[in-house]
Write a structure and sequence with these properties.
Layout (H helix, E strand, L loop, with lengths): L4 E6 L3 E6 L4 E4 L6 E6 L5 E6 L3 E6 L4 E4 L6 E6 L5 E6 L3 E6 L4 E4 L6 E6 L5 E6 L4 E5 L4 E4 L11
Antiparallel strand pairs: 1-2, 2-3, 4-5, 5-6, 6-7, 8-9, 9-10, 10-11, 12-13, 13-14, 14-15
Amino acid sequence: PDGQRLLTKLDYRTARLWDIQGKQLTNFGNLKNIRGISFSPDGQRLLTKLDYRTARLWDIQGKQLTNFGNLNNISDISFSPDGQRLLTKLDYRTARLWDIQGKQLTNFGNLNNIRDISFSPDGQRLVTKLDDETARLWDIQGKQLTNFGNLNNIRGIS
């Protein structure tokens, strides 16, 4: 996020952190089936999505901070804008909100084929795009605020 480091995913087995001069800073080791990696908004932590089953939070020195355990078909995970919460999309059926210590805060339940999900800029709401061609706005406690109805061929949300 500060433009001073680069995070790479290699051969689905390891993640490495580099400075922009090409010096390796951290090797995150053998992580078996890395499917995604991302920096926290402040650049001090990173998130790995492993084998569609778990997510792990790390500091940039390579110390594992949190293992989110068996998440059953995790398809997406992202940080809240303040970096204090994580949003997971699981098996295209549910979304869950977590604190960075691994405590589940909200389970959004059965949402029938979630295609996209994202935080509002202030991190207090989120929006989902569902297979039924609706977009829905939620508060972070899991209360639906708005159903935008049939949007016929909706392709994205933000």
